[in-house]
Design brief:
two-stranded antiparallel sheet; 5 strands; elongated
Length: about 240
């Protein structure tokens, strides 16, 4: 005879029978437990499911952060949610203990520049990146950024040939500690100062350091590339 499945009691989120201070501590524990168990940032909506309707998540998170101030990990806003993350100071310690290399996470100077251009001006094609920097962006660079899951294919560009564009991902946001793309440093100030402007750069108004031409004098093919992945839902 088959066993009847156990019916789980509905979680008591209001905790009305507890004193106010114990209720608050229980809510803090629930939120921290969810964040601890989650492999990716947890949305505000998910956390709100386990606390009472009158609970201020912002105050709750602030109290958790205060308690973690002297701990080797912290609660951060990342990729539209919240996440527990080891403090940067202990990164080498963790890699050493695991016997791991951080080679895959290390970005060269050129990769960093390409990633920054994609982050600020997405969606952007590989050809536009080439015009941006005055030389072709190698497929190895794009491949490495893809392997790290920092970028993905975006919508096709309306340009002739409908090339794929590149966009950043939630992994990019979480890794660099951004909650949203609005947290990127001072893009508005740079544009207002005339130091960073996509239209000017694509029109050929490059800084002198970016005037190097490709050895063959050509720009990369922006057409369909069978090695490019189709667009994915990345946001």
């Amino acid at each position: 005879m088959a066993r009847r499945p156990k019916i789980r009691a509905e979680l008591d989120v209001e905790l009305a029978d507890l004193p106010e201070d114990l209720r608050w501590r229980e809510w803090m524990g629930r939120v921290e437990a969810i964040l601890f168990a989650a492999p990716a940032p947890v949305t505000r909506e998910t956390l709100a499911r386990v606390v009472g309707h009158g609970c201020s998540l912002d105050r709750l998170i602030a109290d958790i952060r205060a308690e973690l101030r002297d701990r080797p990990y912290e609660l951060v806003a990342a990729a539209g949610g919240f996440q527990l993350r080891t403090r940067t100071h202990f990164a080498d310690t963790i890699r050493t203990a695991r016997g791991e290399s951080d080679q895959m996470r290390d970005l060269s100077g050129s990769e960093t520049l390409v990633l920054a251009a994609i982050a600020y001006y997405q969606p952007i094609t590989r050809g536009e990146l080439a015009r941006f920097f005055g030389q072709e962006v190698s497929r190895d660079t794009i491949g490495h950024l893809r392997a790290l899951a920092f970028i993905a294919s975006g919508p096709r560009s309306p340009q002739p040939g409908a090339p794929y564009t590149y966009v950043t991902t939630k992994t990019f946001l979480a890794h660099f500690g951004f909650d949203t793309l609005r947290d990127l440093p001072d893009i508005e100030a740079l544009e207002d100062a005339g130091l960073l402007n996509k239209d000017k750069l694509l029109a050929g108004d490059f800084p002198p350091s970016f005037m190097a031409e490709p050895e063959d004098g050509s720009l990369p093919d922006e057409g369909n590339d069978p090695r490019e992945e189709p667009p994915r839902d990345h946001r």
